[in-house]
Amino acid sequence: NYIAYPGTCVPHDDHGDTVVSSDISDNGWTKAAPITYYDSPFPVMIPINYHIGCMGLAPASHEYVDSIPPMPTGGNLDNKRIGIGTTMYYPVEVMGALLSMGDAHTAQGDSELD
Known about the structure:
Low-confidence stretches: none
Strand order of the largest sheet: 2-1-3
């Protein structure tokens, strides 16, 4: 089972030695056109801006946690302003708080778009 969020999953195409499984398309995800891959990168400097994309504490009200929509206790934030030196305050709803963090980024804009 999966939770359908329109526009959040794009099936990739075979590229080079990579053969993509059909797991995504088997669940009904499609795309409008083939993906264009660029194998010759152009010279560019991207500033380093470390941040954790997904962090929070365990909520008391759920049997399972869907991390895509953030909750008061945290979730998928992907906010470039939440990086080194930032203090986050989350309500503690369960004994021990149970901090969870993942989806680390070296550089990214807000969300997955820029």
